Amino acid sequence: SYLNPLNVIPLRTLCRFFSISDKFWDFVFVPIHTSTFLEVEMGTVPAVLAELLDDIVPFNSVPRMKTWKSNANDIIDKMTSDFPAGSCRTSCGVEKVEYFPKFGTADAPFDIKVHDEDGNVEMFDGVIFACSAVAMNQILHGKLSGSAAKMPGQFALPNHKNGLNNPESPWYRRMLGWVEEQVFTRTMYTVDRDKTFEKGTVHSVAHAVIPDQFRDEVLADYCNYIEVDTEKPQNLENTFVISSWAPTAQAPSVKGKLPMLVTYNAEDKLEKEETEWTVTSREAHPCLTTWQMFASNALWPLLQGTRHGQTYFCGSACTPGNGHDLSFLSGLVVASQLGASFPFDYDPKAKADFDRLRSMMFSVW
After folding, report:
1. CA distances from 68 to 76, 239, 362 (A)
2. What separation in angstroms does the CA of 195 have from each of 60, 208, 243?
3. Model confidence pLDDT, tens digit, residues 148-191
4. What is each CA distance from 168 to 107, 121, 173, 301, in whole angstroms?
5. At 120, phi and psi to the nearest 5?
6. How many Å apart are CA 33 and CA 39, to the nearest integer?
7. pTM of the complete model
8. How far, in Å, CA of 97 to CA of 264, rounded?
9. Is the pLDDT of residue 211 over 60?
10. pLDDT score recorded for residue 171
11. Helix, strand, coil % (nearest 5) of the chain?
């Protein structure tokens, strides 16, 4: 319910009201949920999420992780098998999207030009932005925001053909421009306020991050191993044990032979070890705040189907839960607006989730 007071009361405040100690919050709640939130700053998490978090990671039982039977590449190949060869390009970024009225009048539909980072320009009838709010702002408006604005050597040129220069009325133009400015610039990502999970180290050096007495058990049966500094609990280390659950690591020929680990905030332990590479979650995980909940329910829906029904938005910035499943489902929702069918229509629970998210993303005030 929009009127639920727990939408605006932080969970941390509610815990204090019910005499849940700071020690429990700092040494139990936060460390356990860092694997979900990818940050240690959780003071702004709305209390309304408490029940949902307990369903995902319960404190009174051992949760079991489920994943796909195959690997991600097989799933993506199957999903894109009906597309022409070369039409799905995952290694080529978009630099700019420009809107040109077909007949030179404000009420005409657009020809949409998409410019990629390799200098190619293609024309489309509709676009879906499935990227971070920072990238949306840069592509549509030529403006840097968030972490991109702070990186050295970054620059952008204003985009004056962003589709807001040809709306039906000046009022509509101002309203739409204001909403886009709010959601593009105020969507905060976890690494913007907490650097703990800014960079993860991919490696197989289990002895460097997991103590001897726990190592075999952790590598076999657990998804994460977390160490908390007793003096400064916010300085925690989190190792994701990918090999304990990833389908590619469960084949008899490889299972148990080489750990697949991603460790955060333990550079001192790994600086002299042989590691593989580093990963980053920059602009991937919006902070779970009251603002983000409000924007996903009240502001992002105003942008869906704008620019003559030719522009849609999906992904973690547009959804309230910041989860993989919601982000993926939001893409199916906006694709349905452009004529695609829901591929899991045969499953009543999946269809119910689809209808529920669709009604939220396309709600009308």
Report:
1. 12, 21, 30
2. 30, 21, 25
3. 555 444 445 556 677 676 555 677 778 888 888 999 999 988 88
4. 6, 27, 8, 19
5. -80, 145
6. 9
7. 0.86
8. 36
9. yes
10. 74
11. 40, 15, 45
| 311 exposure class (CB count in 10 Å sphere: 0-12, 13-18, 19+) | buried
Q: Confirm if 240 and 262 have CB atoms less than 8 A apart.
A: yes
Exposed/middle/buried for residue 269 (C-beta within 10 Å: 0-12, 13-18, 19+): middle
CB–CB of 112/97 below 8 Å?
yes
Q: Which helix (H) or strand (E) holds 309?
A: helix 306-309
Candidates 135, 127, 56, 83; CA nearest to 325 is 56
Positive or negative, the CA dihedral 168, 172, 174, 178 is negative
Rounded CA separation 31/257 (Å): 28
Q: How far apart are CA 303 and CA 311, in angstroms?
A: 8
Q: Token pair for residue 143? A: 């403006």
d(CA 102, CA 264): 50
Taking the C-alpha atoms of residue 275 and residue 151, their distance in angstroms, rounded to an integer, is: 26
CA-to-CA dists, residue 106 to 98, 164, 259, 341, angstroms: 15, 10, 59, 31
The tokens for 335 are 């694709």
* Confidence check: pLDDT of 333 > 90: yes
**β-pairing, 236-241 with 261-264?**
antiparallel
Q: Helix, strand, or coil here: 330?
A: helix
DSSP symbols for 27-82: IIIHHHHHHHHSSS--TT-BGGGHHHHHHHS-SSS-------SS-HHHHHHHHTTT
Residue identified by tokens 């076999």 is 220
The per-residue b/e assignment along 120-130, b for 16 or more CB within 10 angstroms, e otherwise, is eeeeeebbbbb
Pair of tokens at residue 323: 């989860």
CA distance 8 to 26: 22
Task: Identify the H or E element spanning 261.
Answer: strand 261-264
Q: 162-170 contacts: CB < 8 A, separation 24 or more?
A: 162/97, 162/98, 162/99, 163/99, 163/110, 163/306, 163/307, 163/311, 166/99, 166/101, 166/106, 166/110, 167/106, 167/307, 168/106, 168/107
Contact 358, 331 (CB under 8 A): no
